[in-house]
Amino acid sequence: MSFFDESQPSKKAKRKTKATAKKTTMMTTKATTATISAMLKNPRGGGFVSDRLVYRYPPQPRIDGLQGDESTFNMCSFWLVEALTPSSLALPEKLDQARLLFERVLGYANHVGLYSEQTGQQGEALGNFPQAFTHLALISAAFNLDRMLGS
């Protein structure tokens, strides 16, 4: 007896899916690598990274309408670790970069390991404290970096 089983794709569909996944991965890797390279530039050069910490948007000109200087955004720094980690499959040196960035950002926790929303130019905690989203980004970055370093 023969019947149609939607959960079992045909061989042709499997080949097409694999080819599409490979093409998408290659395109994503190229796009991701280019985006990361642009981000890693100093803000004066159009990037977002200063002293291995990441701004959430260019600090100059101010685009948020708030008074005062923009500081680096801790969650974005951990997100950059997460972006660098899988890109190391294409560019192995990115894994060392991710690890160094992660270790650098870890140094901005307070005495009990909590993070604020932002880190000021002198290393001071600014903004919301403690910042739950930053801690979620920390956990995710640590988990993914650990998996990649362990492989």
Could you explain how this protein is built, in words?
The chain is mainly α. The protein has one domain (21-150). It has 4 helices and 5 strands; from the N terminus they run H-E-E-E-H-H-E-E-H. It has helices at residues 11-39, 74-87, 93-106, 132-150; strands at 49-50, 53-54, 72-73, 118-119, 125-126. The strands form 2 sheets. Strands 3-4-5 form a 3-stranded antiparallel sheet. Strand 1 (49-50) and strand 2 form a beta hairpin. Helix 1 packs across helix 2, helix 2 packs parallel to helix 4 and helix 3 runs antiparallel to helix 4 (132-150). The longest helix is centred in the N-terminal third of the chain and has 29 residues, at 11-39. The chain starts with 10 loop residues before the first helix and ends with a helix. The relative contact order is 0.11.
List the helices and strands and how they pair.
Blueprint: H1 11-39, E1 49-50, E2 53-54, E3 72-73, H2 74-87, H3 93-106, E4 118-119, E5 125-126, H4 132-150
Helix pairs in contact: 1-2, 2-3, 2-4, 3-4
Poorly predicted runs: 1-6
* N- to C-terminal distance: 45 Å
Helix percent band? 40-55%
How many domains make up the coordinates? Answer: 1
Shape, principal axes of CA atoms: globular
Estimated share of beta-strand residues = 5-15%
Structural class computed from helices and strand pairing: mainly alpha
H-E string = HEEEHHEEH
Compute the number of helices. Answer: 4
What does the largest sheet look like?
3 strands, antiparallel
**Mean pLDDT, all residues:** 78
How many β-strands, per DSSP? Answer: 5
Radius of gyration: 20 Å
Task: Give the strand order of the largest sheet, numbering strands 1, 2, ... along the chain.
Answer: 3-4-5
